[in-house]
Design brief:
mainly beta, Glucose Permease (Domain IIA), SH3 type barrels, 9-stranded antiparallel beta sheet, 5-stranded mixed beta sheet, 4 helices, binds zinc ion, M23ase_b-sheet_dom, signal, Peptidoglycan DD-metalloendopeptidase family protein, Dup_hybrid_motif
Length: about 400
């Protein structure tokens, strides 16, 4: 049937042009912006693992800035039902009306970075950060577990890990989130970036390299719309706020790790100089600081952020790791580093192979004082050198 096959291929072509990230045809002419944004959010949620679009009870579109009836910027939230393990989903959006049609980009989509780059309602600081939030949804981080984040409270305080790695909605998505409470209950930005309050109780901070950190259930929180924050800037207090759905029984912060607008598994990532580890089930799990293991229910001391060219000494159950005068066990011992210590890595080279907690490697790292430590006993978050070759 020639006609039918022609119409089928036309339909495919139309669908392809609508979902194309760069050359989208835009929404139907005349369709209001809020409808276009809501539809984009529901389509995005439907494409995510573990998120069932049918569970959203409502969609809130918050247009925050606009110009010339052509440019718009704001937030969109899919409101969750008031039940256990249901939580809202939120994005920022940038929109431009061309030829009577709204073109919308949600953060973590190429159109977001593209539209932001030329939008007069997006600040220069936002353009720089948003440029790194235009990747494909759920971009893999390629085995690089460095986040540059501290735990979301004051460095030096210890809070309780009430819940270990679990999915954003306790569903089948990536185990991106931790439930945390304690100390002075003041939730602070885990890393520098731009903060946005997308919902009552919900703050998200976009970081310059595509990472985002997200904080939910907050009481008395900042009302942020592009607020420039440093690591440690106050965001709100732990609470039980569920302004956009879900349930929280005891006060805590539901802290989530995101990249390119999607939740990613937090396991193996370094936050506050702890390496998060999944349990057999959601909300279980543990965290490692060197060889110090804290199970769910235990206290995590916030040691601050681990730098991109730093390592956490992990003696794999021992108390110290030898430092040597060269990259191998044949060189004399010239010092030791304590388990859990932070080392600055100047450069790396191959030497004798050793086996630590995370596997076997022949890589050695040279420290600022010229001594060397095996990478087998240095957790850097990267399976390979973090800096230049020596
Ligand atoms: Zn949680």
């Amino acid at each position: 049937m020639k006609v039918k096959s022609w119409s089928t291929s036309l339909a495919v072509a139309v669908v392809a042009s609508v979902v194309s990230p760069t050359a989208d045809a835009g929404a139907r002419p005349g369709l209001p912006l809020v409808d276009v944004v809501a539809e984009a959010a529901r389509a995005r949620a439907a494409a995510e693992p573990g998120l069932a679009a049918a569970t959203w009870t409502d969609t809130k579109v918050d247009v925050r800035r606009s110009a010339d009836d052509r440019w718009s910027f704001g937030a969109v939230v899919l409101v969750a039902p008031r039940q256990e393990d249901a939580r809202p989903r939120d994005w920022l959006f940038v929109a431009e009306k061309r030829d009577g049609r709204w073109h919308v980009g949600l953060d973590g989509h190429p159109a977001f970075a593209e539209l932001a780059a030329s939008s007069p309602v997006v600040t220069g600081e936002e353009k720089a950060v948003f440029a790194a939030h235009g990747g494909a949804p759920a971009t893999a981080i390629d085995g690089d577990y460095r986040t540059g984040m501290q735990l979301p409270w004051a460095v030096g305080q210890s809070w309780t890990m009430l819940g270990g790695p679990h999915a954003h909605d306790a569903g089948s998505g990536p185990w991106s989130s931790l439930d945390l409470a304690g100390g002075d209950q003041r939730v602070l930005a885990a890393r520098a970036g731009l903060a946005y309050t997308t919902c009552v109780g919900l703050v998200r901070v976009l970081h310059p390299d595509g990472y985002a950190s997200r904080y939910y259930h907050l009481w008395d929180h900042v009302q942020a719309d592009g607020l420039s924050v440093a690591a440690g800037t106050f965001l709100g207090h732990t609470g039980t706020e569920t302004g956009c759905g879900g349930v929280a029984r005891a006060r805590h912060v539901h802290f989530s790790l995101m990249h390119n607008g999607s939740f990613i598994g937090i396991a193996n990532h370094i936050v506050g100089k702890w390496v998060l580890r999944n349990g057999a089930a959601q909300y279980g799990g543990s965290a490692l600081h060197g060889s110090t293991l804290v199970n769910v229910g235990g206290a995590l001391h916030n040691y601050g952020a681990l730098g991109r060219t730093q390592g956490l000494v992990d003696a794999n159950g021992g108390t110290v790791v030898n430092r040597r005068s060269g990259p191998g066990s044949g060189y004399p011992v010239v010092g030791t580093s304590a388990d859990g210590a932070t080392v600055d890595i100047r450069c790396s080279a191959n030497g004798t192979a050793h086996t630590g907690r995370w596997g076997t490697t022949s890589l050695w790292n040279r420290l600022p004082d010229g001594t060397w430590i095996s990478d087998a006993f240095t957790y850097t978050g990267v399976d390979g050198p973090v800096g230049a070759p020596c």
